């Protein structure tokens, strides 16, 4: 899904490889504010001020606050899933569809790693607030869209339709994010709760096609 930011602004190189770009400074400022406060409590004015930028900086470099949030989450979280999703997609295309449990593990394992640190749990809570509210932040990474996951789930469950696969995946992602973000930034989920979450998610996704 394309973002609302101008492509020329998104690809602008740094003037000095050792110095953060304007986009980097805005992302860092936004992260520090968004991890401490609710999304709607953080204004564009506050982000620009925290980054030491003029009042139009966010709009110029990202197009909107939501597009900035999307860019921030992709920068911080997409690398956690990139290799796993690419590996499973490659197997699917080669005629070796991964099992449902493997799909769930590709999602849950990186999320479990995030829950080990307070900063990671705060990032997870920010992702949950965006996804559970169905907030359109212009994600561009394949991991943040349903299409690759629908193809993988249908490959794992012959006869499963695309619409039903999408419904199951949305329910699964909602459950995972709600459960892992509900404990709070200072309290990671227990190992037993993590195992139960995995088993429940696999069972729900694996139900026979209707």
From TrEMBL:
InterPro entries documented for this protein: Homeodomain-like_sf, HTH-type_TetR-like_transc_reg, HTH_TetR
Superkingdom per UniProt: Bacteria
Domain HTH tetR-type: from-to ranges: 20-80
UniProt keywords, alphabetically: DNA-binding
Residue ranges with Low complexity bias: 1-15
Keyword DNA-binding: yes
Single GO MF descriptor: DNA-binding transcription factor activity
Statement: the UniProt record of this protein carries the keyword DNA-binding: yes
Alphabetized Pfam families for the sequence: TetR_N
Residue segments, region Disordered: 1-23
UniProt DNA-binding region: 43-62
Protein name: AcrR family transcriptional regulator
Organism listed in the record: Prauserella sediminis
Lineage: Bacteria, Bacillati, Actinomycetota, Actinomycetes, Pseudonocardiales
